[in-house]
Amino acid sequence: MRNHLLRGAAARGALLTLALAVAGCGSKSVDDNAPLAYVPADTPWLFANVEPLPEATRDQFARQTKALWPIVIGIFDSAVADLDRTAATRSADDADHDDDLDEDDADAATDAAASTAKENAAIAARTLRAVLDEIRTRDTPEKWEELGVRRDAHIALYGVGVLPVLRMELGDAEAFRTLVARIERKVDSQLKVERIGDAEAWTFGGEHARGVMAVQGNHLVLTLLPADADEALQRRVLGQDRPEESAAEALVAFNKARGYLPYGSGWIDIRRMVALVPDDPGFAALRKAAGRDMPTIDATCREEVAGMAAKVPMFAFGYTELDTHRMTMHARVDLAPALAQSLLAIKPRTPAGVSKDALVDFGIAVPVLGIRDFLVAQADAVAAAPFRCAELTGLNDSFAQMKAKISGMVPPPAANFTGLRIAATRFAWPEGAAKPDFAGQLLVASDSPALLAGLAQMAIPALQQTVLKPDGVPITLPATILPADWSDVPVQVAMGDKSLALAVGNDATATLPALVKAEPSAEGVLVDATYSGRIYDAFGKAFDRFGALLPAEQAAQMKAQRDLYAMYAQWFKRFDLRVALAPEGIDFVETVELANP
Q: Would you place residue 11 in the very low, low, confident or very high pLDDT band (cuts 50, 70, 90)?
């Protein structure tokens, strides 16, 4: 539970930090010294900003960061404590090991490895503690500027080949160097300094690959380099040799074509990644660092893998709205036209309509027969042109086995199933109450809802006297089939032409007739969902209810999560999610409606 809470809070904090870093970045033109000017035009992946957010939006995010900062620091304090315990545990294990072994039986290599791991944990704890000393009270942009961090910095995260590079502008390069020196003194350990090209850089890492951090002019550069990288590769990765053509204009054109705002967008070019992998020295170094040899990829495998990548050529993402009231993030998995059309032929539609008044409302399309036909078509395509690459021939059998399992008749009611919707309009659990106060709905979309009702009556004899018609008229279920504590809660069912629905609680039963008669979504929608910022308040109250039952350490973490959710309940009004098929691919759209600042 404790680790889960840490991960949840850390993930939210990391996402907000990334949003703030990008949101506050940029100027209105891409000049020759901007990070984007160092990004090669053939980069396989890129995330960068071109322009800054309006000042009002930056100020709003700064206020939220200031409120969030004590919780973020608390998470890091817990991480330091974990590292301290790890080092102490390893020290105790070493002592037990020494007591149990005679000198002649001691394994020098094992002891050396254990000693190194213990020292690494201790250094990591000291380093994180030193970093925390520097940032603990820096909860405003002005305080971060004292460390050399520029509030309106351009930033670019990209690949030189497959090697990752982060390049961002600094406001005061000397202040940043001084920061690194202070941290080194506190840790009592200095980073290794190497001459790379015509500049010095801090380096750290292992036998096959090393991390590199360098200050070049007013840029901070973070990257990975193969240990045996030649000077030409080092200079390209660090940007000492500029690319003949940068990705700056490509990103501007990309934003225009996709309808993205210039505050943070990019792509992963899957075709380019696949083409690079066989020969890229960076990829080979990363595999060696992970203890894996570089695979041998012959011409046949290259051709077939490239063909697979051509069907899913790119993943693109960016903002389409971003201000003090709304943030809309769009992503698309590009698909080859033939594959996209095959998916569109499934004709998915989510049942009923998403309710903006719900606490949570989740709808998903599951057209069973359409999905079966699509998968059978893919299996037939593989059978007609089986893979010849040795590493891929296993897919031939997998597709053949899949077709054998699904190509026959799908029995009802599964064959009639087309989708599902689950919604909750109210959830509370007052202190002293035996059960939660809940209202919600479950709708099953089917071409034969009467069959579903009949199966339910066969399974629950008490329902056999219940007569349902496809007219949307609610029928109250007998109290005898409900748990004893729920006998006072109204539970109704209703049937429409293409749906069967259940409602629990007065809030839900009142809208049941409209629910079963509601039109499904437009064709192509796979998922539509919404949840209110009020849900964080409900989660927080649940933590209050059960936190006292936890051990002290977990209760403290629960309190941190409770405080975080209390902030979310104030910041966020509603989240909307939509996943839909389009002729160009699969679209993912999430809109965050912010509460008034």
A: very low
Q: Write the DSSP string, 65-133.
A: HHHHHHHHHHHHHHHHHHHHHHHHHHHHHHHHHHHHS-GGG--HHHHHHHHHHHHHHHHHHHHHHHHHH
Exposed, middle or buried, 369 (CB in 10 Å: 0-12/13-18/19+)?
middle
State the DSSP string of 442-486: EEEEES-HHHHHHHHHHH-GGGTT----TT---EEPPGGGS-GGG
DSSP string for residues in 569-594: HHHEEEEEEEEEEETTEEEEEEEEEE
Q: Which of 14-18, 309-313, 337-341, 461-465 has the lowest mean pLDDT?
A: 14-18
Closest CA to 22 of 261, 325, 326, 332: 261
Q: 210 pLDDT band (50/70/90 cuts)?
A: confident
Q: What number is the average pLDDT over the span 88-112? A: 55
pLDDT of residue 7: 39
CA–CA separation, 367 vs 581, rounded Å?
A: 14
| Total length of the chain | 597
> Maximum Cα–Cα distance for the chain, whole Å?
86
Mean pLDDT for the chain overall: 86
Cis? peptide before 348, omega within 30° of 0: no
- Three-state DSSP class for residue 321: strand
Helices (H), 299-448: 299-311, 337-344, 368-384, 393-406
| Strand residues in 505-571 grouped as ranges (E) | 525-532
**Number of neighbouring beta carbons within 10 Å of residue 341:** 12
> In the block, which residue shows the tokens 């902030």?
567
Q: How many CA atoms lie within 13 A of 87 on its CB side?
A: 15
Q: Which helix (H) or strand (E) holds 333?
A: strand 326-334
Q: Alpha carbon of 324 to those of 27, 59, 411, 531: distances in Å?
A: 19, 9, 51, 19
CA distance 333 to 589: 12
Which of 118-122, 162-166, 455-459 is most confident? 162-166
pLDDT for the residue numbered 387: 97
| Distances in whole angstroms, Cα of residue 207 to Cα of each of 59, 127, 162, 290 | 44, 22, 19, 11
The residues that bridge with 577 in the sheet, in sequence order, are 529, 590
